[in-house]
């Protein structure tokens, strides 16, 4: 038998073995894995090909154990949704096919290399010796690698494939496959990550591709090679031989993904080499050790390698979320990444990425804010979804404050409410700035304290009852129109300025309490007379942190702060409380004295885990800068006017109910309406839908009135031809929203916000007023 025949047979056997090894049985049959001709097509061509393969899609849509709801979606009659759904599945299908193709090609290449052995890597500069695979096989692997990308996205902001790994704030290495003489590794580097140098696997022939991001690779193995690779469809593949010391750095602002294929031959997967980069044989490179082990080790807790490709690529419909929408469903082994703290469940039980689920389900009620949702999920929610031990291992703490800012009516309040609801938090406490302000001295601050009181009381009760505060639900505290409350201190003139400054201070004090001040010593209150002669209710927190102050200095500073800034919050800090005399403590009538070892530190820290403060404003520029510092409202997300795609999503959201009840004409096109509503905010679009429905309701009422009065169903009361035509049918005896209704609504509802974020209504009123004044002047 010629070499080619042998290798072809080996390839065929290899493919079968590979399929079994990768658990491909339950996946779409081989005719849905791309043929070599199809593989030579461009990605869009492949997409088109898959689109025509309806059987494959349906199999994928309704996998064993899949919910009927997923299949039902096809029959929902909602063509937009159906189209979106199909696109999503086509993309998933493509990704899965591409990945499986890669595995098959690698397996074939590894099978061809069965006779080759990597040289011993003892020297640390190992090379794969001799012939290891046929050139065409290598080319196939390279082609397959080139097709891989984690960045394909589905509809409505659902991130697919590996992008959920981008939630990690730490570099991660994920073993996607291991066995059959090769491994496939995914390295995920958060923006700016520069993990310590390490050696790649010894003796491995490696092919790496940057799937996303801009990555610098520095190799130092006798010679120094600096290679910077930005992801493009034509990104060159790094082709290297194992053993050299290497450092990767993510130079981009997005997460970078690097996919590597490592061929290690028959002798099995080599260990990561964590010896010092200088080549010292015994001396371990502790830094690299930590990185490498924290990656796979974290992943071992998160998702036992090798990951099931299905796990990584699965991202379908309603299974994970209580409200539907696209969610990432991870069928994992014990303790998969982002399990929402449920690690260690039954092996087959579906587990979901809590953060991704929340993000995706938010998209079902908040439209046009995909990027914002992604940022919120990554920066605010992701850590809350991590199991406590993983979070501790990564050394990350929760973000406690989120600021949503932007023009009015674009969904800030809606987003905050929905966020609280989806986080299964206690009912959110939502107050608006002007509501908090009070004419009575000290009352506004009391209201602020009351907002935080529930979280604190619940925590106390839980601790007293011997419970674990970590199990407590989250408290979300939302301040709408924050600019009315938290203007830059000292920026306001007049009698109210002291009160407002004091409210800012109170909020800061509470947020800092939530941050968990170390070494909190004393807290109390005092009535002080400010320069302007008004009495203020001072909240005083004394923190022992800096030894720079002596007792008198502390006292003077506290008084000085209170007096000179009209600032009713005085903060004194010292590490040497013993140096303090009694004066500050008595003068400020401190009710409590805590020290470092006191439980109260833990108290504040734990409360902080269970509280999220969300501020909302149209005028971020007016806010006190202290409020925006890290540890306070540290994540600021701009919520803009929706673009066309966003408007389409918002319209679909607001019409969803009426549509699902079959009350909207098929001719009503969200896409068309979106193209005609440039400059509309989310609130305007909601108003437009309400207006259109109001016309339909009026027509319906007229119809019923006519029937009731004359017993004859003739819609003479409306000139709308669509309604006339349909008046006979039983179905249209109900409300029916038509294109004509929207045409009328468009004449009635206008954009309320200018591009610069101002309310047009106000400007219009002002314009009218000035016209009236001018007229009056002319008349007089
Ligand atoms: N992105 C959106 N998706 C869906 N509905 C939206 C969106 N934005 C606004 N809406 C609709 O408009 C209403 C008002 O929006 P919301 O109060 O959240 O805006 P806002 O940005 O907080 O405005 P303001 O700054 O005036 O407080 C919402 O209840 C919702 O019905």
Describe this structure in words.
The protein has a five-stranded antiparallel beta sheet with strand order 1-2-8-3-6. It has a five-stranded parallel beta sheet with strand order 12-13-18-11-19, sandwiched between helices. It has a four-stranded mixed beta sheet with strand order 16-15-14-17. With 780 residues, the protein is of the alpha/beta class. The protein is built from 25 helices and 19 strands. Helix 6 packs antiparallel against helix 7. The N terminus is likely disordered. It is 42% helix and 15% strand. It folds into three domains: 3-313, Jelly Rolls; 354-638, Rossmann fold; 644-749, Helicase, Ruva Protein, domain 3. Strand 4 and strand 5 form a beta hairpin. It binds adenosine-5'-triphosphate. The site of adenosine-5'-triphosphate has 19 residues, from helix 13, helix 20 and helix 22.
């Amino acid at each position: 038998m010629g070499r080619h025949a042998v290798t072809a047979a080996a390839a065929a056997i290899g493919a079968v073995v590979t399929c079994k090894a990768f658990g491909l049985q339950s996946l779409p049959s081989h005719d849905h894995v791309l043929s070599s001709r199809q593989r030579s097509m461009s990605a869009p061509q492949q997409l088109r090909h898959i689109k025509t393969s309806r059987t494959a899609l349906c199999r994928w849509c309704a996998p064993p154990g899949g919910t009927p709801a997923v299949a039902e979606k096809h029959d929902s009659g909602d063509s937009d949704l159906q189209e979106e759904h199909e696109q999503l599945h086509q993309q998933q299908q493509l990704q899965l096919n591409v990945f499986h193709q890669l595995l098959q090609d690698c397996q074939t290449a590894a099978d061809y290399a069965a006779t080759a052995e990597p040289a011993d890597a003892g020297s640390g500069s190992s090379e794969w010796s001799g012939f290891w695979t046929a050139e065409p096989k290598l080319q196939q692997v390279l082609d397959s690698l080139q097709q891989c990308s984690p960045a394909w996205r589905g509809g409505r902001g659902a991130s697919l494939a590996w992008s959920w790994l981008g939630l990690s704030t730490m570099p991660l290495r994920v073993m996607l496959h291991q066995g059959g003489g090769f491994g496939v590794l995914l390295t995920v580097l958060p923006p700016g990550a520069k993990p310590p140098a390490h050696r790649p696997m010894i003796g491995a022939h490696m092919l790496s591709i940057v799937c996303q991001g801009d990555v610098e690779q520095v190799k130092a193995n006798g010679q120094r090679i600096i290679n910077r690779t930005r992801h493009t469809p034509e990104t060159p593949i790094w082709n290297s031989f194992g053993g050299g010391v290497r450092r990767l750095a993510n130079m981009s602002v997005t997460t970078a993904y690097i996919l590597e294929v490592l061929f290690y031959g028959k002798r099995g997967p080599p260990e990561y080499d964590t010896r010092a980069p200088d080549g010292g044989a015994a001396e371990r490179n502790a830094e690299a050790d930590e990185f490498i082990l924290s990656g796979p080790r974290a992943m071992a807790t998160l998702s036992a390698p090798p990951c099931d490709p299905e796990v990584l690529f699965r991202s379908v419909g309603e299974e994970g979320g209580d409200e539907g929408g696209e969610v990432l469903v991870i069928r994992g082994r014990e303790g998969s990444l982002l399990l929402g703290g449920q690690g260690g469940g039954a092996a087959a039980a579906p587990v979901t990425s809590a953060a991704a689920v929340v993000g995706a389900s938010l998209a079902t009620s908040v439209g046009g804010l995909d990027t914002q949702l992604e940022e919120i999920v990554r920066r605010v929610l992701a850590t809350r979804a991590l199991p406590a031990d993983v979070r501790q291992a990564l050394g990350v703490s929760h973000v406690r404050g989120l600021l949503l800012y932007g023009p009015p009516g674009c969904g800030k309040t809606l987003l905050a409410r929905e966020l609280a609801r989806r986080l299964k938090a206690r009912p959110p406490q939502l107050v608006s700035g002007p509501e908090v302000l009070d004419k009575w001295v000290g009352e506004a601050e009391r209201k602020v304290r009351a907002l935080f009181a529930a979280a604190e009381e619940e925590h106390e009760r839980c601790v007293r009852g011997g419970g674990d505060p970590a199990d407590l639900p989250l408290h979300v505290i939302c301040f709408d129109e924050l600019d009315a409350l938290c203007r830059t201190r000292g920026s306001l003139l007049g009698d109210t300025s002291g009160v407002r400054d004091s409210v800012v201070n109170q909020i800061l004090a509470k947020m800092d309490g939530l941050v968990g001040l170390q070494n909190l010593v004393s807290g109390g209150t005092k009535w002080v007379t400010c320069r302007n002669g008004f009495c203020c209710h001072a909240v005083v927190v004394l923190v022992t942190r800096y030894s720079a102050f002596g007792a008198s200095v502390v006292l003077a500073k506290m008084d000085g702060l209170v007096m000179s800034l009209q600032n009713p919050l005085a903060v004194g800090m010292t590490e040497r409380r013993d140096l303090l005399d009694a004066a500050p403590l008595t003068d400020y009538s401190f009710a409590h004295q805590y020290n470092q070892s006191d439980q109260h530190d833990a108290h504040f820290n734990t409360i902080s885990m269970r509280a999220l403060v969300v501020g909302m404003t149209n005028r971020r520029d007016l806010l006190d800068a202290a409020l925006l510092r890290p540890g306070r409202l540290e994540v600021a997300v701009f919520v803009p006017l929706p673009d066309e795609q966003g408007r389409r999503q918002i319209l679909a959201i607001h019409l969803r109910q009426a549509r699902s009840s079959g009350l909207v004409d098929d001719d009503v096109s969200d896409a068309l309406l979106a193209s005609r509503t440039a400059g509309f905010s989310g609130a305007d679009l909601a108003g437009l839908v309400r207006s259109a429905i109001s016309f339909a309701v009026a027509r319906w009422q007229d119809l019923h009135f006519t029937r009731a009065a004359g017993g004859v169903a003739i819609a003479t009361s409306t000139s709308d031809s669509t309604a006339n035509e349909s008046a006979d049918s039983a179905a249209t005896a109900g409300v029916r929203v038509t294109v004509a209704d929207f045409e009328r609504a468009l004449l009635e509802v206008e954009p309320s916000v200018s591009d610069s974020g101002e309310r047009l209504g106000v400007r219009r009123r002002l314009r009218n007023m000035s016209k009236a004044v001018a007229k009056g002047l002319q008349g007089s």
